Structures are given as structure tokens and as C-alpha cells.
Amino acid sequence: MIGAVVAVAAGGALGSLMRFATANWINSHWPQHFNIATLLVNIAGCLLIGYFYGVFLLRADVPLELRAGLIVGFLGGLTTFSSFSLDTLRLLESGQAPLAIGYAAFSVFGGLLATWAGLSLTKL
């Protein structure tokens, strides 16, 4: 289990550094379009989590450390949007469309509301 913990920590560090580097690069070239960095890492993370999940379904022999390091660590550090997207897709695939739609709506609007609430707390 310690190997998986180390893999997640290392992957998380790399994913976070990649998100940081992407944001800095975008901001230095197109500061007025700062949100493109987040969009890019979110879309890339979604693409990668779908790919890795599919590969790991086909290849059960892939070690836990590699699976956890890539999906939970690296992609978790890069973006949590990829995990949200995978969870929603899995709900849809399991025939739980109403729950998937509710989950997606609550995640997006709940996240926006929570962000607004957190920001509002700083103004008290």
C-alpha cells in the first residue's frame, strides 16, 4: 500500500506542476485569456482519464501503483474535472441518467455557489 501512496503523491506533484506551468505559459502569452489554461488542462485531463480507464479495464495486470499514480495522482493534481467527468459517464453507462444529470448540475452549480460563498467570506 505504501507504494500506491508514494505513486499518488509523486503523480499529484507532477500534475500540479504541469497545471502551474500551463497556466504560467498561457498567462505570459495571452493574459486576457487566463481561463484557457484551466480549460486546456480540464479537457486534456478528461481525455487522459478516459484513455487510462479504458486501458486499465482491458489490462487488469497493470499494477495498482501505476493506475493510482496516473489517475488519482497525476490527473488529480492536473485537474479534478477529469474525475468528475468519469463519474458522470459511469453513472450514464450504468443507466442512471437522472442521477448523472443531477450530479453534473449540482457539481457545476454547487461548485460555483461554493466558490462565491468562499469568496464572500473573505469580504466579511
Would you write up a description of this structure?
The protein is an all-alpha fold. The chain has a domain at 2-79. Helix content is 85%, strand content 0%. It has helices at residues 2-29, 35-58, 64-78, 81-93, 97-121. Helix 1 (2-29) packs antiparallel against helix 2 (35-58), helix 2 runs antiparallel to helix 3 and helix 4 (81-93) runs antiparallel to helix 5 (97-121). The longest helix is centred in the first third of the chain and has 28 residues, at 2-29. It is globular and about 50 Å long. InterPro entries: FluC.
Following the backbone from N to C, one meets helices and strands in this order, namely HHHHH
Low-confidence stretches: none
Number of β-strand runs: 0
- What does the main sheet amount to? none
> Strand portion, in percent?
under 5%
- The SS-based structural class is mainly alpha
Kindly report how far apart the N and C termini lie. 44 Å
Helix share bin: over 70%
Shape: globular
**Total count of helical runs of at least 4 residues:** 5
- Over all CA atoms, what is the radius of gyration? 17 Å
Mean pLDDT: 92
Element layout with pairings:
Blueprint (H helix, E strand, L loop, with lengths): L1 H28 L5 H24 L5 H15 L2 H13 L3 H25 L3
Helix pairs in contact: 1-2, 1-3, 2-3, 2-4, 4-5
